[in-house]
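Quick note —
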Amino acid sequence: MYGKRILLGISGGIAAYKIAYLIRLLKNQGAEVKCVMTPSASDFISPLVVSTLSENPVAIEFWNKDSGLWTNHVELALWADLYIIAPATANTIAKMASGICDNLLLACYYSSKSKTIIAPAMDLDMYQHPTFKRNLNQLISDAVLVIPATNGSLASGLEGEGRMEEPENILRFIQINFPFSAKELSSKKKILITAGPSYEAIDPVRFIGNHSSGKMGFALAEICLAKAWEVTLICGPTNLDLAHPNLNIIPVFSAEDMLLAVQENWKNADIGIFSAAVSDYRPEKFETQKIKKTEKTINLQLIKNPDIISWASENRGAKQFVVGFALETNNALEFALNKLDSKKMDMIVLNSMEDKEAGFKKETNKITILDKKKGKYSFPAKSKREVASDIIDTIFKLM
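Predicted structure written out below.
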């Protein structure tokens, strides 16, 4: 987010204490940050803290009663690439939905020509009130993006929905939904990504699977969406979730399900990133009734699943780019190179179970990228989001 200009509006709720952390996160990403506060917000967080962390004066009133200087809300609003209001209280949201403009934060909202994002925060009964829901729906219809409140401990002492999302997740939402310039939009790509495991049913209650969480595939989708690209994410069973106007998620269960989804969508993609941990084999016979535990042993005959990456490579257009993954436990480089050649990929991402920072369900990964011209690119251990960024950057260098 280097050089991106963020106007941060802070309204008067207890969740305002979290904003110091959000400002620090935005600054660490290279963003420029200016802040506007409602008068009541200063009861919850000091303007001095906000000014120090943002490295800019804080705007609170329309004019300074001591100096007589006027705060130009139009200039502030037009300066911003993005306006985010956090916390957005029930009072502020009601005024935004009703057209009321009685403070500087709201004046900036009505003068803004950039995208507006709000992060609601209030007690659970307020968050469920039909009036609030009606106001929120009005803002959504006005093209305001909403970061839903979460469940958790509230200032009232109650537990429930209404807690403002954590700063790290607000940053993530901003990165995914950041508005892009015409120049950035002109390089728009269509990306097909497979993610997560595939499950192969044995009977109605049992299956063969693996430990893949889908985190790497979802991180790749986030990076692509952050570039304003269109993403088709074909994912096996996972607890992860992602929402974006440019995202089409296709949930699947088995390897055969995933292949069918790839076959239906591959022709529309510029790049295929096949990060799913697809089961190599499936049971030859599916038992329609649950298998009972009557015998000491049971024989399970397995047959090979179709190879999704090979199909994509064999059925691609001249400009389509194919990326695969290899997770190995031994002889990693040798096996990855063989896989790269045999499946006719343009690039393969190798990660080894021998690395403590890599593997299923972890927050970090350590990769080596190999290309079809025998190029080798090694990276240190990083978060999966940073790894995803390295992968996308390497794809474009090779293309």
